[in-house]
Design brief:
Blueprint (H helix, E strand, L loop, with lengths): L1 H25 L17 E18 L4 E20 L4 E13 L2 E3 L2 E19 L2 E18 L2 E19 L4 E18 L2 E17 L1
Antiparallel strand pairs: 1-2, 1-9, 2-3, 3-5, 4-5, 5-6, 6-7, 7-8, 8-9
């Protein structure tokens, strides 16, 4: 009889221990699932607005005498482009922009200056996650004019441009820009018997949208 009681007690204890173990297993929380955040990429179409200041130097010659004139003022415009980001962090792209220059100077009733300008440039840079440091170079143009005292002439100057800048993505779709550029517009006869040679330094900031 004692053996029967002991056996029954052992069986009950074993059953109780098994139940407690099962409850303990059921209460172990599931391991958290890791969610991988996609890395930011500069690849894609983008566009934006920009503005700043330009310092344009003009050298004028009539074949006998020559003179220099500075044409400094504000710049405002827009840009559009496309980037390709490689797996090693390097970024290549192409960009076009158009700006309006407020740099007219007047002398003896004659207004001289440039207004519309633009460029098409190739860009190469390196992405530090959301910061893109780049250099750019390509073709540029500007419209120069002389108006007054019976003269109404304008000519389109063509040349080359080179510069560098930084784009910083505030969100996945919006970025800020800071850029310096040097434009050499070359020389051309802007009016009969008057040759003009134009070059410009420009500093701009911009706000862009990446699509």
């Amino acid at each position: 009889m004692y053996k029967t009681i002991a056996l029954a007690s052992a069986l009950a204890l074993s059953t109780f221990a098994s139940a407690m173990a099962a409850d303990a297993v059921d209460q172990i929380p599931a391991a958290p699932v890791a969610v991988e955040t996609p890395a930011f990429s500069w690849t894609g179409v983008y566009g934006g607005i920009q503005g700043g200041a330009g310092w344009l130097d003009g050298k004028f010659s009539d074949g006998v005498d020559s003179a220099k004139q500075d044409f400094d003022g504000g710049v405002i415009g827009g840009f559009v482009g496309y980037n390709w980001q490689l797996s090693n962090g390097f970024v290549a792209g192409i960009e076009g922009d158009v700006d309006y220059n407020f740099n007219e100077e007047s002398d003896s009733g004659i207004d001289v200056g440039t207004d519309w300008a633009g460029s098409v440039r190739g860009r190469v840079g390196y992405a530090f996650d959301r910061a893109l440091v780049y250099g750019a170079a390509g073709w540029t143009f500007t419209n120069g004019y002389v108006d007054g005292a019976g003269i109404d002439e304008n000519e389109t100057f063509h040349g080359w441009t080179v510069g560098a800048g930084v784009d910083f993505a505030m969100t996945d779709n919006m970025f800020l820009r800071g850029e310096y550029r040097y434009n050499d517009f070359g020389d051309k006869d802007i009016a009969p018997g008057l040759n003009a040679d134009l070059d410009q330094h420009v500093v701009k900031v911009g706000l862009g949208v990446k699509f």
